[in-house]
Design a protein that fits this description.
Layout lengths: L1 E6 L7 E3 L1 H4 L7 H4 L2 E4 L6 E3 L6 E3 L5 H5 L5 E9 L4 E10 L7 E2 L3 E7 L7 E3 L3 E2 L8 E6 L5 E7 L5 E7 L10 E10 L6 E11 L7 E2 L3 E7 L7 E4 L2 E2 L10 E7 L1 H6 E3 L5 E4 L10 E9 L5 E11 L7 E6 L4 E2 L7 E8 L9 E4 L6 E7 L2 E6 L10 E10 L6 E11 L7 E2 L3 E7 L7 E4 L2 E2 L9 E8 L7 E3 L5 E4 L10 E10 L6 E11 L7 E4 L15 E4 L8 E4 L1 E3 L10 E6 L6 E3 L5 E4 L10 E9 L7 E10 L3 H47 L1
Parallel strand pairs: 1-7, 9-16, 18-25, 27-33, 35-42, 44-51
Antiparallel strand pairs: 2-5, 3-6, 4-5, 6-7, 8-11, 10-14, 12-15, 13-14, 15-16, 17-20, 19-23, 21-24, 22-23, 24-25, 26-28, 28-31, 29-32, 30-31, 32-33, 34-37, 36-40, 38-41, 39-40, 41-42, 43-46, 45-49, 47-50, 48-49, 50-51
GO molecular function, one term: calcium ion binding
Membrane topology: Single-pass type I membrane protein
Subcellular location: Cell membrane
């Protein structure tokens, strides 16, 4: 608790006290601690200076207007600092200055005194008000000297000083009908302030008995909110005289303006009626003096004191100040998120207020100081589960019946990057036919992040994979689309795997990885290749030189002549091979195995069969469309190698003749070209 004391009537901007220093805050701490005034009905009177360190006057303070006669006059407010959070109670005592002069309720006092009044009789001179307190309040009265009158000061039970005029000598109306005096009231301030009232005393004929009130002081307690016209109480006076001298009329002789607005006095019966609204919160106590005057001019005075009793007619009021909104979802329990100030203008139990919130929320209320609560986090928050909270604070007093009010506070959760991206599948599979175009889409990976904003924005990239897989594919950072970087070849790579990483935009970033396995599908893009005998380049290609096979003329059906050996680099049906003879001089003499490629005699060799046989076999795969290759086989029918040699020599010569012919053709073409060039050169020279 921090306490300051300042005089009233200080100008705007006047220093109250070095609040930051008194709270132990250094200038370097101020930006982080966020010192500010957060509650208190008196906040409008004070403010923090531009430097946010000193407490200063925000508007001129009139002690009498705020506290009246109450002493000490203390204004309270609360200051809040954060990191860590704390609340401090600040009390400012407002010191009185002598800024109010004593003021008579009536500046002109008329008194009628019967000439038979004996010396020693006293006559009230009205009430003096001085709004200041202590030494600055009313201290003394001064009366102009007069041989017939003196001044006496009577102190009432409540401590006020009432001036009374004392008759010192008997009056003689026939000698002097009236007297004029001046009464001066002075306070004890520096400089001294004073107020004056003129007193006129009229001397009347004798009236033996003055009125007498039934009580010396009327003390009345009334409930607030009584309706207009309600009888509050009655004053009563009696007079021992008879006739008109015993007829008493009542009137207020001294009453404040606020009391006059709320009460009326019946001059004949003495009934005091409620005139205006009685509100305990606006006025708790009223005081007045009633004069009872008989028909002969004699009077008596009595004081009335009216105390207003509180009724529970004010609902509590709530003032909400969010400290942390939005709330980071990683805030720890006991973090202060708001300060709630509650006020109830009623008093006693009617003004005692308790606050609560719904029990199913992750918050609780904790009393901080008088009429102030802190709203604390009780358990961990998860923005992805609940993004905001509607907190309803209920304030209820202890009156009967109790009054209550509610205020709603919407607290939003701010996202923290506490969730990593999650792929829709832990592993992805894609099937791509070989010979695809570079840049063709393979598949799209997708990851979800429960966070918001940048924390939930996912980007993708390759994070490794099987050996050599990196050059094959790429991933689009935003969409997660995976594209082929080049054409795939089933014969070189049948499958590969890459790791795709999804990472969010938080700080620090969170990520997860999924495996993408790509299977390359075979296409029929490889023709069969003949290993033996030498094969042509493909379907329709000219056959290469083929070896000779010697078959004895005594060979029976099924004799194995040779075996065509071929392979296909494709797989599956694209690599299934079949063999077929497409050219043979004696179609019925030889056959080839459909799947084995074995060339066998289909029947026994006869003497009529030609000695030389040229066989052409085609090898086909089962792709769509089918691809093929050819193989040529020369067969010589002879009983022995010596018998087959002439045929082999003739074949070799026949094989050499085309080569020689080709050589001579090339040589002739070269000579013709040379002659043409020489002719052109001679023509050019001749022209030159």
């Amino acid at each position: 608790r921090i306490r300051y004391a300042i005089p009233e009537e200080l100008g705007r901007g006047s220093l109250v006290g070095p609040l930051a220093r008194d709270l132990g805050l250094s200038p370097a701490d101020l930006p982080a601690r966020k010192l500010r005034i957060v509650s208190g009905d008196e906040k409008k009177y004070f403010t923090l200076g531009e430097d946010n360190t000193n407490l200063r006057v925000n508007e001129v303070i009139d002690r009498e207007g705020i506290c009246g006669a109450v002493s000490p006059c203390v204004l309270s407010l609360e200051a809040v600092v954060e990191n860590p959070f704390n609340i401090f109670r600040v009390s400012i005592a407002i010191q009185d200055i002598n800024d109010n002069a004593p003021q008579f309720d009536k500046e002109f006092v008329a008194i009628e005194i019967i000439e038979s009044t004996p010396p020693g009789a006293r006559f009230p001179l009205g009430t003096v008000r001085d709004l200041d307190i202590g030494e600055n309040s009313l201290q003394n009265y001064l009366l102009t000297p007069n041989p017939f009158f003196s001044l006496a000061v009577r102190e009432s039970p409540d401590g006020t000083k009432q001036p009374e005029l004392v008759l010192e000598k008997s009056l003689d109306r026939e000698n002097q009908k009236s007297h004029h005096l001046i009464l001066r009231a002075v306070d004890g301030g520096d400089p001294v302030r004073s107020g004056t009232a003129q007193i006129k005393i009229t001397v009347t004929d004798a009236n033996d008995n003055p009125p007498v009130f039934t009580k010396e002081i009327y003390k009345v307690r009334l409930l607030e909110n009584l309706p207009d016209g309600t009888l509050a109480f009655q004053v009563k006076a009696t007079d021992a005289d008879e006739g008109t001298n015993a007829e008493i009329t009542y009137s207020f002789s001294d009453i404040t303006s606020s009391a006059r607005k709320r009460f009326t006095l019946d001059s004949r019966t003495g009934d005091v009626m409620v005139r205006g609204p009685l509100d305990y919160e606006e006025g708790k106590y009223y005081e007045a003096s009633v004069e009872g005057r008989d028909g002969g001019g004699m009077s008596a005075h009595v004081k009335i004191q009216i105390e207003i009793l509180d009724v529970n007619d004010n609902t509590p009021t709530l003032s909400l100040l969010p400290i942390l909104n939005p709330i980071p979802e990683d805030s720890v329990p006991t973090t202060v998120v708001a300060v709630i100030s509650v006020r109830d203008r009623d008093s006693g139990e009617n003004g005692e207020v308790s606050c609560d919130i719904d029990s199913d929320l992750p918050f609780r209320l904790e009393p901080s100081s008088e009429n102030t609560y802190k709203l604390l986090i009780t358990k961990a928050l998860d923005r992805e589960t609940v993004s905001d909270y509607n907190v309803t604070i209920t304030a209820k007093d202890r009156g009967s019946p109790a009054l209550w009010s509610r205020a709603a506070l919407v607290l939003e959760g701010s996202d923290v990057n506490d969730n990593a991206p999650v792929f829709e599948e832990a592993a992805y599979s894609a099937y791509v036919a070989e010979n695809n175009a570079a840049g063709a889409p393979v598949l799209t990976v997708r990851a979800r992040d429960a966070d918001a904003g940048a924390n939930g924005r996912v980007s993708y990239w390759l994070a490794g994979g099987s050996a050599g897989a990196a050059p094959y594919v790429s991933v689009e950072a935003r969409s997660g689309a995976v594209y082929a970087q080049r054409s795939f070849d089933y014969e070189q790579c049948r499958e590969f795997a890459v790791a795709v990483r999804a990472q969010d935009g938080g700080a620090p970033a969170r990520s997860s990885t999924a495996t993408v396995r790509v299977f390359v599908l075979d296409r029929n893009d490889n023709a069969p290749r003949v290993l033996w005998p030498a094969a042509g380049a493909g379907a329709g290609a000219a056959p290469a030189a083929a070896p000779f096979e010697v078959v004895p003329r005594s060979a029976e059906a099924g004799y194995l002549v040779a075996k065509v050996v071929a392979v296909d680099a494709d797989a599956g049906r694209n690599a299934w091979l079949s063999y077929e003879l497409v050219q043979a001089p004696e179609p019925a003499l030889f056959r080839v195995g459909l799947h084995s490629g074995e060339v066998r005699t289909a029947r026994a060799v006869s003497e009529r069969d030609a000695a030389k046989q040229r066989l052409v076999a085609v090898v086909k795969d089962h792709g769509q469309p089918a691809l093929s290759a050819t193989a040529t086989l020369h067969v010589v029918l002879a009983e022995s190698l010596q018998e087959a040699l002439p045929e082999l020599s003739e074949r070799a010569a026949a094989a050499d003749s085309p080569a020689e012919l080709q050589f001579y053709l090339v040589l002739a073409l070269a000579l013709l070209s040379a002659l043409f060039l020489l002719s052109v050169a001679l023509a050019v020279l001749a022209r030159v």
